[in-house]
Amino acid sequence: MTKIIVLGSNGQLGSDLIKVLANSVYTIIGLNRNDFDVTKGDIESQLSKYVNSNYIINTIATTNVDGCEDNPELAFNINSAFVTHLAKFCNKHNIKLIHISTDYVFDGQKTTPYVEEDIPNPLNVYGLSKYAGEIAIRNNLKNYFILRVASLFGIAGASGKGGNFITTMTRLAKEKDSFTVINDQYTCPTHTLDIAKAIKDLIDKEVTEYGIYNCVSSSSCSWFEFTKAILRLSNLDTNKVKPISYKDYSFKANRPQYGVLDTKKLSKYYQMPDYKSALEEFLQLKHN
Ligand SMILES: NC(=O)c1ccc[n+]([C@@H]2O[C@H](COP(=O)([O-])OP(=O)(O)OC[C@H]3O[C@@H](n4cnc5c(N)ncnc54)[C@H](OP(=O)(O)O)[C@@H]3O)[C@@H](O)[C@H]2O)c1
User: Fold this and answer.
1) How many CA atoms lie within 13 Å of 19's alpha carbon, on the beta-carbon side?
2) Is there a contact between 164 and 157 (Cβ–Cβ < 8 Å)?
3) pLDDT tens digits for 139-184?
4) Tens digits of residue pLDDT in 66-81
5) Atom number of ligand 1 nearest to Cα 192
6) Which of 18, 78, 99, 215 could be stapled to 147 by a disulfide with Cβ–Cβ 3.0 to 4.6 Å?
7) 151 Cα nearest atom in ligand 1
8) Ligand 1, CB within 6 Å, residue ranges
């Protein structure tokens, strides 16, 4: 029986992975921070219980992008050093690693979608720490999938961010007369359920074409356009949201202006939906 370990099982993506994999023929073990805190104790000995696994899916990360600027030590500890231990462990015990990375490895200077071979150039500590995690995997392991994801929304909400963009926008539309959202930064908003389905598909199909895959919704938009779609589908007043340039918005961490990823490589195995279909499915699930 194929044994799969999901690290970060209470997180936004982790909890959708547990849901999707529960309806499968595999043995699934979900580990949350109480089972396994990667900043505490000896990582090798904590991992040693899982030497007989076939896959480890690592969704653990410190994901608060501005918070990482204040605490780079924690960012590099969780997003890079832990990933190095994990890659070495997987290599030693012949376990396939499915690891989650980010569009924030790129600087956003391109004007066409990023492909897997584009050279990263992170703009912030979070992106740098995630890129260092990618390098650690590449240097220590052959049987890996690194899935670069972006702008996630899931029913659980990101633990590091206290919710997700959709819940914040619907709250603002209910509480305020008007509010501003950036209209010149572009991304591929992605439902964590779709990433979980893509991962299950890679496992079901026993894919051995290892490497980096972009795993995002197959269409892109600005944050402003995304907000309009959220409000429209939630029957909220779309006129309340006003466009603003990222140049007039102050974040602690710099963010790529253009974070659109090309999904052609993944589509050979799994076709990600466009962001509007993904959003519709999310809102339906949320209201049921
Ligand atoms: N959210 C986004 O928009 C976004 C964008 C691009 C890439 N990503 C990547 O996607 C992946 C999943 O993100 P997500 O949105 O699902 O984030 P999330 O909900 O914050 O999940 C992160 C997980 O990491 C766990 N974790 C954090 N510190 C830990 C520690 N010291 N020991 C053990 N577990 C720890 C959290 O546990 P607790 O639940 O106990 O806190 C949580 O389960 C991450 O690799 C992230 O870098 C996310």
Assistant:
1) 17
2) yes
3) 999 999 999 999 999 998 876 566 799 999 999 999 999 999 999 9
4) 999 999 999 999 999 9
5) 16
6) 215
7) 3
8) 8, 10-14, 32-33, 36-39, 59-63, 78, 100, 102, 130, 149-152, 158-160
Ligand 1 centre from 183 Cα, in Å? 26
Strands in 42-199 per DSSP E: 55-58, 96-102, 144-149, 152-153, 179-182, 186-187, 190-191
Distance CA 280, CA 262 (A): 22
Nearest residue (CA) to ligand 1, atom 40? 33
Q: Which ligand 1 atom is at minimum distance from the Cα of 36?
A: 33
Instruction: For residue 19, report the distance from its CA to the centre of ligand 1, in Å.
Output: 17
Residues that are catalytic? 126
Q: What's the CA-to-centroid distance between 99 and ligand 1, angstroms?
A: 12
Q: Whose CA is nearest to atom 2 of ligand 1?
A: 152
* Residue-level pLDDT, tens digit, the chain, 288 residues: 999 999 999 999 999 999 999 988 999 999 999 998 999 988 888 999 999 999 999 999 999 999 999 999 999 999 999 999 999 999 999 999 999 999 999 999 999 999 999 999 999 999 999 999 999 999 999 999 999 999 999 998 876 566 799 999 999 999 999 999 999 999 999 999 999 999 999 999 999 999 999 999 999 999 999 999 999 999 999 999 999 999 998 899 999 999 999 999 999 999 999 999 999 999 999 887
Find tokens 């195995």 and name the residue.
269
Q: Where are any strands of DSSP class E within the chain? A: 3-7, 27-31, 55-58, 96-102, 144-149, 152-153, 179-182, 186-187, 190-191, 211-214, 221-222, 241-244
